């Protein structure tokens, strides 16, 4: 394996202006390094980063809570992992703002499963390694219809506050916050900035009537939810509840 990179920029000519010194680069060198088994360990570098490595590992291995079940990315219209993710984000965001339903990620955005047992900070980082922010979108009913069509056509996505049946890849029997969907109404949807910006080819979010960043990262919402459940003496026990069914 070869890595090509600028190695050294040497300032070898000093020009004096008044009482101060200014330096300018007149020549740069470029080196080629082979990354393989012939490289020897540099103890100086190890000593430099080891304290930071130990501190980071201590933080990442801190136990936040416990899951009573394995949160898996099951194939189907909903999954335990997707339900946990969407409900956790919705629960924390509702402490700040009200909204009708959430689609905080897609199935492809669920980066790792959570095994039964202890949930560490590292577990959440592996599930959500990105710095995505949560945003509120006020949408026309016609845009929400596009979003619902997208969810149905992709055989379900992680959602909370939304119920639907998928029939021939179309959404039917739609309930938002327990009320029938009305295309003439406007709705406030909680999602990530990634999806709001068109990530994962998500439909219906591109032209909101209003957009608001709420000051909460998706990962922080997940971390806070697990911590709060633990503080309340609860474990994570997600269920398949039929929020998205297939006819």
TrEMBL record:
An example Gene Ontology molecular-function term: 5'-nucleotidase activity
Any GO BP: nucleotide catabolic process
Gene Ontology CC entries for this record: outer membrane-bounded periplasmic space
InterPro entries: 5'-Nucleotdase_C (IPR008334), 5'-Nucleotdase_C_sf (IPR036907), 5_nucleotidase/apyrase (IPR006179)
SUPFAM superfamilies named in the record: 5'-nucleotidase (syn. UDP-sugar hydrolase), C-terminal domain
Sequence ranges assigned to domain 5'-Nucleotidase C-terminal in this UniProt record: 69-204
Short name of any one Pfam family annotated for the protein: 5_nucleotid_C
Protein name (Swiss-Prot/TrEMBL): 5'-Nucleotidase C-terminal domain-containing protein
Organism placement in taxonomy: Bacteria, Pseudomonadati, Bacteroidota, Sphingobacteriia, Sphingobacteriales
